[in-house]
Amino acid sequence: MRLWTTARPVTRGWVVLTVLGLTMAVVGTFLPWLRSGSVYRDSYATATAIDQLLSSDTNLGVLLRIWNGAPPAVTVCVVLFVVGWWRTAAVPAAVLSISMGTVAALLTVQGADAGGLVTITLPGPLTTTVGSALAFLGALGVLVTSRRKRHAPPVQRDREQVTR
């Protein structure tokens, strides 16, 4: 556990960037991701709709249901950062940012075609992509700059003092 006041300023900056990026990524999941007709749906409503269209036996259906666990998982990471377990929090933060960012980036790229009846809207996926990228960079920064406190090796005596 690291204290905020004893940490190096660089590490504190990476922690803040990671927490802000994770927060931005989760906020992006609640913004519109899909427009069908005149109805806008966030990522959770979109995942539920796709899951209902598929048979429940598919792996994609399982992944769509796992998407609902993103906000609680991010909350756990943020709490770990707050209590000072930075290296412990940085690993799941990096994994979450990669997974959320990949899905969001794929939809951001596909969102350029807005001519259909059902279209991808950019606010949600774009916000989640940017937040995930910031969180990933911050998590890597935390892992690189925060060092575990190592105990100093025992002081060795001079040979002269030992032989006396």
Beta strand count: 3
Major beta sheet summary: 3 strands, antiparallel
Principal-axis shape equals elongated
What is the percentage of strand-forming residues? Answer: 5-15%
User: How many H/I helical runs?
Assistant: 7
Structural class of the secondary elements? mainly alpha
Low-pLDDT ranges: none
Please give the share of residues in helix.
55-70%
Give the C-alpha Rg. Answer: 22 Å
Instruction: Tell me the distance between the termini.
Output: 43 Å
Order of strands, main sheet, comes to 2-1-3
Order of helices and strands: HEEHHHHEHH
* Average pLDDT metric: 83
How do the helices and strands line up, and which of them pair or pack?
Blueprint: H1 9-29, E1 34-36, E2 39-41, H2 43-53, H3 59-66, H4 70-83, H5 86-110, E3 118-120, H6 123-145, H7 159-163
Antiparallel strand pairs: 1-2, 1-3
Helix pairs in contact: 1-4, 1-5, 1-6, 2-3, 4-5, 5-6
